[in-house]
Amino acid sequence: MFPNRMESYRHSFGKPLEIRMEIQRENEVQRRIFGLLLDVSPGGAKIFSEYELPLGTVAVKFFFKINHENIAASGELVWKSAIPDGWVYGVKWFADPVKEMLIAEEIKAGISIS
């Protein structure tokens, strides 16, 4: 079986990074919450939150820092899984080639300095 070559590579962190999320409806921020960034790729991420959030029905803005670069990305929650202390979510970034390139470059830079 061959891996899907179109899949984005993912980078997991030894210690999860803090992430801020803004749940939006009709272009207005409805809720701000904090969580942990478990892994990231140019195409999406896996995050942890203590709160249960709706899938796919709202836009979410994510704010996090990789290395020393502040990143703001928008996306949607595409899957979730309950765990004892909260929820793990899969995030798919909305298409943004510049943001995808920035995330890829920061992942590469972080790997090379580790």
Topology diagram in text:
Layout: E1 11-25, E2 28-41, E3 44-49, E4 59-66, E5 69-83, E6 86-93, H1 97-113
Antiparallel strand pairs: 1-2, 1-4, 2-3, 3-6, 4-5, 5-6
Describe this protein's structure.
- A hairpin with a 2-residue loop joins strand 1 (11-25) and strand 2 (28-41).
- The chain has one domain.
- It is built from one helix and six strands; from the N terminus they run E-E-E-E-E-E-H.
- It has 114 residues and is mainly beta.
- One of its GO terms (molecular function) is cyclic-di-GMP binding.
- It holds the Pfam family PilZ.
- Residues 6-94 form the PilZ domain.
- This is PilZ domain-containing protein.
How big a fraction of the residues is strand? Answer: over 45%
How many domains? The number is 1
Series of secondary-structure elements, N-terminal to C-terminal: EEEEEEH
Oligomeric grouping of the chains: single chain
Which ranges are low-confidence, i.e. pLDDT below 50, for 5 or more consecutive residues? Answer: 1-7
Question: How many beta-strand segments?
Answer: 6
Helix content: 10-25%
Report the principal-axis shape. globular
Protein name: PilZ domain-containing protein
Organism: Planococcus glaciei
GO molecular function: cyclic-di-GMP binding
InterPro entries: PilZ_domain (IPR009875)
Short note summarizing the structure:
The protein is 15% helix and 58% strand.
Protein traits:
globular, 6 strands, mainly beta, 1 helix, 114 residues
